[in-house]
UniProtKB/TrEMBL annotation:
Protein name (Swiss-Prot/TrEMBL): Asp/Glu racemase
A GO molecular function held by the record: amino-acid racemase activity
Region (Disordered): 191-211
Similarity comment: Belongs to the HyuE racemase family.
InterPro entries from the UniProt entry: Asp/Glu/hydantoin_racemase, Iso_Racemase_Enz_sf
Chain coiled-coil ranges: none
Amino acid sequence: MKTLAVLHTTPVTVQTMKDLHAKLKPEVRLVNILDDSLLSDVMQAGAPTAEVQYRMLSYARNAQVAGADAVMCACSSVGEVVEALRPELKVPFLRVDEPMAQEAARLGKRIGVIATVNTTLEPTARLVERQGDVEVEKVLVEGAYQALVSGNSERHDELVRTALLRLLDRVDVVVLAQASMARVVSTLNPAPAKPVLSSPESGLKKALESL
C-alpha cells in the first residue's frame, strides 16, 4: 500500500484532506501531521524562519521513517520552504498549490491572487508568476483572517465574497491562496462565470497520481 503524508499548519485543512482522500483514492494510506504553531510563527516573523524550516524538515523526515512514499505540505505560507528542502528528502516533497498555479496560467493571462494573510499571499503570487507570461494582481482581504480566528466566520465570508467579486471583474481567473476561503465560492449566486481555483483538491489529486 502506498502512503502519502500531509503536513498541515492549521486544523482547517485536515478534515478537508480526509474527505478528498476518501473520494479520490481511499486505497492510498493517508498520514496527517499537524503543527498549528508553524503558521502563527510565520505570521509573527513575517516569513518562514530558520526554526520553522528545521521543524518542517524534521516532520518530513519522520514521515519518511513512517513509510511515506511522498510528502505534501498543505500550507502555501511555507511552500517556498518545501522547495528548499526537497534535496534533503529521499521521497518527493510536494506543494499543495503547484497544480493550482499551473492550471491558472493555462486558463488565462490576467490572474488574481486573493488571500486573508499576507504571508500566504506573497509566496502564492510568486509561484503563479513563475508559471510563464502572466500578469498577477494581488488582493489582501483586510480583517477577514482576524474575524475567522475570533469565531466570526460570517464576517470573514462577507469580506472575502465582496473582495472576490470585485477581483473577478478585473481578471481572467482567480486563485484562492488559502483553502479556508474555498467555501465562499459555493455561496455565490449566480456562480462566477470565470474560473476560481482552490488548492486542496487539485493538489491532493496530483500527489495521489504521483504515487
